[in-house]
Amino acid sequence: KALKATISPRLDNGQIVLDQLKYTDEDIKNINRIHIVACGSAWHAGIVGKYVIEDLARIPVEVDLASEFRYRNPILNKNDVCIIISQSGETADTLAALREAKRQGIRILSIVNVVGSSIARDSDDVLYTWAGPEIAVATTKGYSTQVALMYLIALKFGQVRGCVSAEEAAKLVAELESVPEKIEQLFALDGKMKELAEGHANAKDVFIIGRGIDYAVALECSLKLKEISYIHSEAYAAGELKHGTISLIEEGTLVVAIATQDTLYEKLVSNVKEVKARGANVLAIAKEGNTEIAEVADEVIYIPAIDDRFTASLDVIPMQLFAYYVAVARGCDVDKPRNLAKSVTV
Ligand code: F1P
């Protein structure tokens, strides 16, 4: 529902309408570089944004952790834009990063859920995510709606800058409009994810691998697992495995392989073979129809077919369910994870 609210009012006859965005076409054409700054899940949404914006709009994007950006004396130029992402709009590091960007005089666009929050008030432009109240501490629909706005910005900027044709935009819009319905379909995996989670509730380490946008979403899936089930989990760009991480794989180690980029699918299948050869237990996520991975992985979860650029919205759902059921099986309080606050204001 939150995702529909974020996507639907902004799609009008195949034209992207970011109705709250006060950027003229000239402003969009003049952007030199985008700096996305955020913390936690919002930072992960920003990494998805980097892949999609660079791909569709051909604008260089840097993604920074707010807690680093605020102290590292970043170089911001006149025609740069800073995109600040924060569900609560109150995260202290993110607010401080915003002030640093402001001090350097660049235009600030924030993506915020809470209307009238500090970050929203301090920005030049605000896009609200309309996710409704986030009840649990761990962000779920906040992430989904932030990612949706990344797509909309990428499409809008891509069209204005002449990188996405009207025909391609219409196709992508249709894909985007199918996302909420496909998420509904994924809820049918609830029982399956519960069963898998109960089987892995005693895992000591969980490695989550992916390439491209699948890597970006792996970071978020890993955080969900850590923050609510307290299992040690790391996300790795699958191509990095051979540069060290592969040494950590031993008999029975759980590896979640996200393999939903058509262009990188074969490479992911090879990575699964590499970890299987070292005894890993592999749970793969693949697109419907891409069945080759089933020959090497122990279990495969299929998501509905979708354009590669929008897979993050679908991949994250079974993994959120997985993290939830692992946490429940371990007796953790999912809504109030230890040591975590809903908004980190200090
Ligand atoms: C950022 C964040 C959340 C996380 C937790 C702590 O919050 O790291 O992603 O789930 O709630 O804070 P925000 O800036 O998006 O409100």
From TrEMBL:
Main subcellular location of this protein, as a coarse class: cytoplasm
Residue numbers of the full-length protein present here: 261 to 606 of 607
Signal peptide coordinates: none
Stated role: Catalyzes the first step in hexosamine metabolism, converting fructose-6P into glucosamine-6P using glutamine as a nitrogen source.
Span of domain SIS: 24-163, 196-337
Record has Ligase as a keyword: no
Keyword list, A-Z: Aminotransferase, Cytoplasm, Glutamine amidotransferase, Repeat, Transferase
Name under which the protein is recorded: Glutamine--fructose-6-phosphate aminotransferase [isomerizing]
Keyword Hydrolase: no
E.C. number(s) listed in UniProt: 2.6.1.16
Active site (catalytic residues): 342 (for fru-6p isomerization activity)
Top-rank lineage group of the source organism: Bacteria
Gene Ontology MF annotations: glutamine-fructose-6-phosphate transaminase (isomerizing) activity
Catalysed reaction, written as an equation: D-fructose 6-phosphate + L-glutamine = D-glucosamine 6-phosphate + L-glutamate
First-tier enzyme category under EC: transferase
Subunit record text: Homodimer.
Subcellular location: Cytoplasm
